[in-house]
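Appendix B. One record, verbatim.
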Amino acid sequence: MAGLLVPARRRGYEVLDQDDVDPVVVVRSHRDIARANALFGGTRCILARLRELVPRLPAAPVIVDVGAGGGDVLDAACALLRQSGRRPRGIAVDTAQVLAPAVRARGLEFVAGDARALPLADRSADVVLAAQLVHHFPDDELDPLVRELDRVARVAVLVGDIRRSWLAAAGLWLASWPLDFHPASRHDGVTSVLRGFRPAELTALVRRATGATADVRRHLGWRVTATWTPHAA
């Protein structure tokens, strides 16, 4: 039964991963992504894990969200930290500079940069987030990517991604119609699910890349998270 419900991980093709995408489509699709994060658990699972990290954070933590898109998850993370009495500094890193105005409108900083070579110093962030990011990369780039997240973090790395499932792919495709998703969002959403990770795969990736034993958990909405203490922190 598991083999029927859980397809083999596949690359596929995502519109937003291409270099020549119309900026209008990029902005519109990221609005859809933000709605999907809010409705289907992408934001909720990040906040649940971040809440556990709060006691370990300083009074004014630096939070970097790699592949932040329009900044919706980072904005929610900073709001949670403010509720705990912290004064967070939120930094969104993304390759799509067209998203910078939306990020800055949330009161966040925007840095144009590639997740595989972050323009940030070693241990320059207390927490490094990567929400729905890791599945975008081919297998031969996963280890260097995870090591780069690990390099920048002081206290913790927090990865949130999608649990691969035919049911999740079908559910997203069906929900995208009444939610009026852009066709690119619908296509990329299904592809993202089929690129996702099972918990054991995410555990093995972090161990292989950093030597750390990640705390990997399942969440509602076919989500999976991993947190770990940076290797050299």
